[in-house]
Amino acid sequence: MKENSKLALLALFQPENLDFELPQASFELIWPRLVERGRTSLLYYLVSRGWLERRGGGREARYSLTAHGARLLREELPILTALTSRRLAPPVRQLLVFVHSPSIDPQFRSLRRQLLEVGAIGLGRGAYLLLSELPYQL
Questions:
Q1: 12, 26 contact by CB (below 8 A)
Q2: Which residues pair with 16 in a beta bridge?
Q3: Which is nearest to 131 in space by CA: 70, 74, 79?
Q4: Measured between alpha carbons, how far is 135 from 32 in angstroms, rounded to an integer?
Q5: Using CA atoms, how far apart are residues 84 and 52, in angstroms rounded to an integer?
Q6: Which residue did the predictor score with more confidence, 60 or 98?
Q7: What is the C-alpha separation between 130 and 40, in angstroms, rounded?
Q8: pLDDT for 127
């Protein structure tokens, strides 16, 4: 599964709320580097694969994760299965996604190392899952 597809499925993955939906405009925040046609094309692809369900039309369309999409995401990221089980589910989960690193900030490179030191799980390039509160130092 490609990075952009994974980001969309993760944004919609809400095991506590199976009816969770996002409006089409929200995907601009998930894929900031894609133009509108690219986002529309990718959403169409995800719906045609059966990973997302579309309700409504045009710019008012809303998208939700299908059972097939959730199963595929759990296969791709097995840690999600552990997180959603009752015995391991922490009270706080945070998904941190970095679009790009600022080239003028010399401290940005150490941020990845610090995230991993506090227990964050690297999900892919620039995406981290934190199972607790983000420490104030970061």
A1: no
A2: none
A3: 79
A4: 27
A5: 20
A6: 60
A7: 30
A8: 78
Residues 6+ apart with CB under 8 A from 138: 111, 114, 115, 118
Closest to 6 measured CA to CA, from 91, 89, 95: 95
Q: Residue 39: CB partners within 8 Å, gap ≥ 6?
A: 24, 27, 28, 31
Cβ–Cβ under 8 Å, residues 52 and 8: yes
What is the maximum span of the chain, computed from C-alpha positions, in angstroms?
Answer: 45
Rounded distance between C-alpha atoms, residue 127 and residue 40, angstroms: 22
3-state helix/strand/coil string of the chain? CCHHHHHHHHHHCCCCCCCCCEEHHHHHHHCCCCCHHHHHHHHHHHHHCCCEEEECCHHHCEEEECHHHHHHHHHHCCHHHHHHCCCCCCCCCEEEECCCCCCCCCCHHHHHHHHHHCCCEEEECCEEEECCCCCCCC
Report the pLDDT averaged over residues 101-111.
68
Q: Report CA-CA distances (Å) from 57 to 54, 60, 103, 122.
A: 8, 6, 40, 35
Query: Full-prediction pTM beyond 0.85?
Result: no
